[in-house]
Amino acid sequence: MVGTMTWVGLDVHARSTYAAAIDAATGELARARFGPGVDAPLEWLRSLLAGSLTAVVVPAPEVEAAREMTRAHDVCRQELMRARHRVSKMLLRHGVVYPKSKTWTAEHRRWLSQQCFAEPPSETVFADCSPRSTASPRARRRSHLRSHSSLPDERWWPTVSRLRAFRGIDTLTALSIHLELGGDWRRFERATALSAWLGLTPSLNQSGESSRQGAIAKTGSMLARRLLVESAWHYSRQPRLGATLANRQLGQPDHILAIPNRAQQRLYRVNRRMRARGKPHNVTAGARSHEPLSEPHPVSPGRRTIRAIVAPTPR
User: Fold this and answer.
1) pLDDT tens digits, the chain, 315 residues: what are they?
2) Which of 155, 268, 286 is nearest to 226 (CA)?
3) What separation in angstroms does the CA of 88 have from each of 7, 109, 110?
4) 32 forms bridges with which residues in the sheet?
5) What span, in angstroms and rounded, lies between the C-alpha atoms of 141 and 73?
6) Residues 66, 143 contacting (CB under 8 angstroms)
């Protein structure tokens, strides 16, 4: 009941934590200040909430370390994209356009190295931007190789190999999604709970008796959400089992392969229905991004799918 709730706010800093709690029924306000660490704030919270305090999942150190590597790979991708945008937009401002359609090839890079500007400041800026747009791919490849070196870990590879059976999800994407979830899928009771945790479900705007669904909530891991949305674009094409996907599915049992193969059919139908209703491509991709793990089932919808994808705990 709302009248019995205690509202707590924490202002957490590196060396201190400031806390305040207000009783919704009496309006009584309590304040506290703690030093570094979490033990003292937790004890204070337990004294206020009468056993209703629920701990969140904290990733293991090895999961957090591997997650830092996959996130570093994504940072390299973002830096590469920004560097290329700066170079191309600077050339466009000066009226210089590459004559061919395909860019960032070896030939395009040679063409970039031949560009020069009349003004020294522009020459300096271009000389500074160009190496970044060509050096980033090398850093990204090194990060990619280091990320793949984490896969021999028997705790991660079974789940990653199952995720690779889905269309649009290869090794690095599967590893990144698995690590962004803390390496523990079992804490999600249903696939719909996973979608809500990732912010892939529509937001809800309510006022009085009116209720309206808005854009997706965009809570949780931004990296995992982006990877799932990118993968969802593959399901706009007709279902098929190409050579690349067939190689990724090798060695998987039939009950695992049935899930991604049915997902192809279902998501393609979703895409066609939404496009027929005039929905934009980005909206249909967002709607498809949380569908593969939400397959309906007569008993416990979505739960069997989660259990099938998650590998058994290694002994």
Assistant:
1) 344 678 899 999 999 999 999 988 888 899 999 999 889 998 998 888 877 777 777 888 989 988 998 898 888 888 889 989 999 999 999 999 999 999 988 899 999 999 999 999 999 999 988 887 776 566 666 666 565 665 657 788 889 999 999 999 998 899 999 999 998 888 888 888 888 889 988 888 877 778 888 888 888 899 999 999 999 999 999 999 999 999 999 999 999 999 999 999 999 999 999 999 998 888 888 887 766 555 544 334 455 566 666 645 443
2) 286
3) 51, 12, 14
4) 19
5) 8
6) no
Tokens found for residue 61: 């150190």
Q: Name the residue among 156, 194, 158, 197 with its Cα closest to residue 178.
A: 156
Torsion angle, CA of 177/306/284/262, rounded to 10 degrees?
A: 120
What is the spatial distance between Cα 7 and Cα 9, in angstroms, rounded to a whole number? 7
Give the torsion sign (CA, 156, 159, 164, 170). negative
- For residue 103, give every residue at least 6 positions away whose Cβ sits within 8 Å of its Cβ, in sequence order, or none: 88
Task: Give Dmax (Cα) for the chain.
Answer: 74
- Please state the pTM of the whole predicted model: 0.79
User: Strand pairing partners for 136?
Assistant: none
**For the chain, where are the alpha helices, taking DSSP H only?**
39-49, 61-93, 106-113, 120-148, 157-163, 171-180, 191-197, 222-232, 243-248, 254-276, 281-289, 303-309
